[in-house]
């Protein structure tokens, strides 16, 4: 039985065969704003990354998993980042690349699976996300999944000649009903 499986998706570790998908994603300027990327990645660098992607979250403080549909097609990625086992917290990021795969319950399934994994396996107390204030769909999704707005970072992201606010949301295990 696969631990990270939902109704229509599952999460799996990165594989060498994900190189082209990762290359396309990491070099897509449309996602650079949220990823903090400022320049393209070579296939060589991404291949090296994939060769080291098996390293333990306790060592590298990050875990990246592919979001796949039941036909095993990769839809996107979910990242746990800035893992802090001492303070029992971890950041969460999700991207579903193609708009045709959005608004079909994928995000909710991913959030549910990854929160469950983080609480039960990594023993964290809280997860947090950073969402651009203008991204109303993501804000709605995370709130629906039990995350609460705890602050707004004003003028946090500079993109296309203007500053944007970023909303910080948390989901604390003791507050989960």
From TrEMBL:
Organism: Euzebyella saccharophila
Keyword field contains Transferase: yes
The keyword Transferase belongs to this UniProt entry's keyword annotation: yes
UniProt name for this protein: GNAT family N-acetyltransferase
EC number(s) per entry: 2.3.-.-
Parts of the chain that traverse the membrane: none
Keyword tags: Acyltransferase, Transferase
Molecular-function GO terms, alphabetical: acyltransferase activity
N-acetyltransferase domain: residues covered: 9-174
Source domain of life: Bacteria
InterPro entries hit by this protein: Acyl_CoA_acyltransferase, GNAT_dom
EC top class named in words: transferase
């Amino acid at each position: 039985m696969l631990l990270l499986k939902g109704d229509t998706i599952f999460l799996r570790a990165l594989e060498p065969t994900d190189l082209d998908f990762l290359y396309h994603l990491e070099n897509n300027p449309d996602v650079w704003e949220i990823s903090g990327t400022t320049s393209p990645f070579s296939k060589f660098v991404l291949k090296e990354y994939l060769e080291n992607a098996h390293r333990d979250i306790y060592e590298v403080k990050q875990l990246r998993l592919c979001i796949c549909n039941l036909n095993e097609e990769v839809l996107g990625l979910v990242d746990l980042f800035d893992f802090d086992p001492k303070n029992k917290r971890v950041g969460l990021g999700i991207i579903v690349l193609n708009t045709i795969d959005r608004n079909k319950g994928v995000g909710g399934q991913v959030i549910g699976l990854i929160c469950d994994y983080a609480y039960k396996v990594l023993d964290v107390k809280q997860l947090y996300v950073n969402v651009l204030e203008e991204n109303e769909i993501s804000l709605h999704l995370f709130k629906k999944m039990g995350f609460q707005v705890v602050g707004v970072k004003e003028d946090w992201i500079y993109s296309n000649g203007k500053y944007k606010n970023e909303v910080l949301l948390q989901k604390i295990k003791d507050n989960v009903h």
